[in-house]
UniProtKB/TrEMBL annotation:
Organism of derivation: Astatotilapia calliptera (Eastern happy)
TM segment ranges: none
Assigned keywords, A-Z: Calcium, Metal-binding, Muscle protein, Repeat
Protein name: Parvalbumin
MF annotations from Gene Ontology: calcium ion binding
Functional note: In muscle, parvalbumin is thought to be involved in relaxation after contraction. It binds two calcium ions.
UniProt binding sites for Ca(2+): D64, D66, S68, F70, E75, D103, D105, D107, K109, E114
Pfam families in UniProt: EF-hand_7
InterPro entries, sorted: EF-hand-dom_pair, EF_Hand_1_Ca_BS, EF_hand_dom, Parvalbumin
Family: Belongs to the parvalbumin family.
Positions of the EF-hand domain: 51-86, 90-121
Length: 121
């Protein structure tokens, strides 16, 4: 299933572009910028916050690349690529922060219910 069948393609592009610009600043600016990925802002920009619980679960399924029923840390690093092939990789710091925010049971991975709760925060 393609992400564009669940979310608006323009919203996906807008959200990815917003965080790509911040990453460019992080890498090339004379003024250091902290790691820029903010899952709450991203979910809002991409339109996921306003989607039904069923659509959020469909997005989870797309992001669960190995179909294990969980989004593990390695998959999480590439989560933006799940929205568009040219999405950037998350930094290690961003990945760990994202995992920490979502992993409420402390098992080191994100289940569908944890993902849904994170999206709706």
């Amino acid at each position: 299933m393609a992400m564009s069948s669940i979310l608006n393609t323009d919203d996906i592009k807008k959200a990815l572009d917003a965080f790509a610009v911040l990453m460019w600043l992080l890498c090339f600016s004379v003024c250091p910028v902290a790691d820029s990925f903010d899952h709450k802002k991203f979910f809002e920009l991409v339109g996921l916050k306003s989607k039904s619980a069923d659509d959020v679960k469909k997005v989870f399924t797309v992001l669960d690349a190995d179909n294990s029923g969980f989004i593990e840390e390695e998959e999480l690093k590439f989560v933006l690529k799940g929205f568009a092939k040219d999405g950037r990789d998350l930094t290690d710091k961003e990945t760990k922060a994202f995992l920490k925010a979502a992993d409420k049971d402390g098992d080191g991975k994100i289940g569908v219910d944890e993902f849904a709760a994170l999206v709706k925060e």
